[in-house]
Every structure is written in C-alpha cells, then in structure tokens.
Amino acid sequence: MNSLLASKGKQLSSHIPKHFAIVLVISFILLIVCVFASLVLGSRMVGFNGVMDGLFHQSIDSYEANVVRKRISRTIFSLFCGGALGVSGALMQAVTRNPIADPSILGVNTGASLFVVCGMAFLNISSANQYIWLALAGAAITATFVFGIGSMGRSGATPIKLVLAGAATSAALSSLVVAIMIPRSHVMDQFRFWQVGSVGSATWDGIATFSPFLIIGILIAILSASALNALALGDDVATGLGVRTGVLRLIAALGAVFLCGAATALAGPIGFVGLLSTHVMRLLLGPDLRFVIPMSAISGAIILTVSDISGRLIGSPGELEVGVVTAFIGAPLLIILAMRSKVSSL
C-alpha cells in the first residue's frame, strides 16, 4: 500500500497539468487587464492619454496624470497583497490538509488585529514599520495556538477540529479587540478604518516595507511545494518518502504567517482571498502545489484588484472598502464548500 501511495506521490510531483499553459496565459492577460482597469476606473474615469501621461511623462502635471500616479501605488499594493493572501491560503490548506483553511477562517487575521490594536492603545504606534512586526507576532502566536488546540485528542489535527478551534479563537480575540477599543475613542477612530480592510491608503513606503516579507514568504512556499505534495498523501507516507513532516509544517506555516501577517498589517484583515484563489486554481489545475501555489499568487492578485475596482465603482463618488467586497464574494463560497462532502480533508 505504501509503495502504491509513494508511486502516486512521484507521479504527482512530475506531472504537468494538462491545461497549465492555457491557464497561465489567460491569467497573465487578466492580470494586465486588471492593472489597466485599476488605473482607469474609479470615482473619476481617466482616458488613455491620461494613463500614458501618468505612466511615462512625469513632467506633465495634469489632473488625470496625477490621479494615475496615485493609483499606481494602490494597484501595485493590491497586486502584492492579493498574491500574498493567495499563497498564504494555499500554504495553510496544505499544512492543515483542510480545504477551507484561510487566514480569516483560522483566526490568524484576528490575532494580527489584536496585536495591532494593542500597539495602538498601549504603545501609541502609527507607522507601517511598527504595525508589521506586531501583526506578524500576533499571526504567529494565533496560528500556533489554533493548531495546538486543533491537534489535541486522539485523532490529531483533523480539518473540522482546526476550523472549530479557529472559529472559537477568532470569536474570543474579537471580543478582546472590542474590549480594548471601547474605552479609548482615539483608538477606535484609528482602528475602525484599518479593520475593514482597504488598499486605498497604499504608499511607496508601505510597499517597500511589505516587499521583503512577500519575497521570503513566496520563496518558502515554492521551495516547500514538492514536499507538501507528499504531505497530502498522509504523514506516514510522507515520512516514508523522506519528508520531515514536523519541520515541513513549521517552515510552511512560517511562510504563511509572513505573507498573511505582513498583508494584514498594511491592508487590514481582508478575508476569503486565499480561500477563493486557491480553490479556483485547484479546480483548473489539480492538486499539485508546485503549480497551485504560484498560480494562487496570480489569481489572488486578480481577485483583490477586481474587488478594489468594484468597491470604487459601487461606492462612487466614495468607495466601498475591498474587505467588504471580498466578504460578499467569499461568504457564499464558504457555504457552498461546507455543504460538499469533499470538505472533510485534502
């Protein structure tokens, strides 16, 4: 039996999905369209000439050119955050062998939120550089706690136990966030805009702060993809194939925390992007994480950018925060997944 599963593991790591090239080309086309649409669409529409002026003619100081220049950082930031959340979701699903694992569902976003609000309330922090370290610490501690609680008992870390542990932890931490904010009106004003989840306040300094964490997290994800394929066959088979499952889970979870924590620190707790992007790519390409992980980065970037554009158009002349839009998209998906029998495990 083990030899059969081992051969399946080798086939999985060597097989290229049938439609990979087509999916890759279409994804890149959609990504380019999303970038252009993000520069053009909003409360003020910008023409083609305005886009060209804003991108290539820095000496031109027209209103449209300035609007485009402002949207460039926002667009890049939404691409980076969407990619980070997509890869983070893929890693969490692989590590927990849970198809509905996601930073928001497992409570990791809430843990990051708690540490950020504590920093606002007790340390008077207000910069992205300070947010990011607190969010990473909160995400790491919460992920460790949820996995520890979900692993208790004879059956170990089953998918349903991890979701229940994440939901309970998220509810408890959310109540702590509210308890800290209520007596501190200045913290509530500062935190409520961050908590909704938005890429509208993107800055080049924030992108520069975020980029190292994005690179490290994606490198960890890509380098651990083959071993995570073996882990999907079960711990015993993975160990037989030479995979150190404990070390692998720790490293992959660290990559997920880097990506999720950094994105949450700068954009707020945006949910469901990792869940949606990974499931779309798994549906199109199959379970091989060597392809699912990088493609989840692209699909996550597309989903978050489209959500940001939709929020601008729906809320015009203001805007609807991207976290609200992704929740409207992701919540029905979660219900559908929970109703399917295949949700029990990966």
Automatic annotation (TrEMBL):
Membrane found in the keyword field: yes
Cellular component terms per the entry's GO annotation: plasma membrane
Domain of life: Bacteria
InterPro entries: ABC_BtuC-like, ABC_transptr_permease_BtuC
Main location per the UniProt record: membrane
Membrane disposition: Multi-pass membrane protein
Assigned keywords, A-Z: Cell membrane, Membrane, Transmembrane, Transmembrane helix, Transport
Location(s), subcellular: Cell membrane
Gene Ontology terms describing biological process: siderophore-iron import into cell
Keyword Transmembrane: yes
Family the entry assigns: Belongs to the binding-protein-dependent transport system permease family. FecCD subfamily.
Protein name: Iron (III) dicitrate transporter permease
Species: Lederbergia lenta
